Amino acid sequence: MSEQKKRAVILLSGGLDSATVLAIAQHAGYDCYALSFDYGQRHNTELHAAKKIAQQFNVRQHLVLPMALDAIGGSALTDEAIDVPETLAEGIPVTYVPARNTVFLSIALGWAEVLGARDIFIGVNAVDYSGYPDCRPEFIEAFEQLANLATKAGVEGDHFSVQAPLIEMSKSDTIRRGIELGVDYSKTVSCYQADEEGRACGVCDSCRLRKAGFEQAGAGDPTNYQ
């Protein structure tokens, strides 16, 4: 391991938020190890985007793990029988993937322990859209406690930190920060139902939030729409 830098595992979906988090971690001086999941989502374009982003930031390693969450279903993102909504509804949306962030962070924790990394970065946000229970500060704090209770490293005194630098930032603030750090948002895919070429639908919740974020940031929207 580099004596000058600490290692960190970055959850990298290929979307706007995770790309910004990777840039933030790298700017903070971490050796970055990117982790993506092929979890049975509707499209693989976000994984192609993650690969491009990882290459742009020259991460130490980009690991893509298969994980068939579509086998249990329960989400519009993993079950073709459930339509992706085009209007914002009350409560937890059907695009919530059951326990996804818990599962992803658990794998990131295991890899971090193997790598000797003690920091895990995740791009959750509780300001612009707080419908997901696993995007709240309480969840992040609870998982960090779990990480330090349930690992050899934690029990032996090494402290794991789960970092969510975007959790209290608006989408426009996230975009401004990413632009400062050189994120090429044209490489990112946020749409829940992007086509095979990575073009966004422009009408799902994620597209609406992204579009509004660029408008409020006063930045040109580089998204490739259908």
TrEMBL record:
The lineage of its organism: Bacteria, Pseudomonadati, Pseudomonadota, Gammaproteobacteria, sulfur-oxidizing symbionts. ATP binds at residues 12-22. It is an enzyme of class 6 (ligase). Signal peptide: none annotated. This is 7-cyano-7-deazaguanine synthase. The keyword Metal-binding applies. CDD domains: QueC-like. Keywords: ATP-binding, Ligase, Metal-binding, Nucleotide-binding, Queuosine biosynthesis, Zinc. Catalyzes the ATP-dependent conversion of 7-carboxy-7-deazaguanine (CDG) to 7-cyano-7-deazaguanine (preQ(0)). It comes from Solemya velum gill symbiont. The keyword Oxidoreductase does not apply. The gene is queC. SUPFAM superfamilies: Adenine nucleotide alpha hydrolases-like.
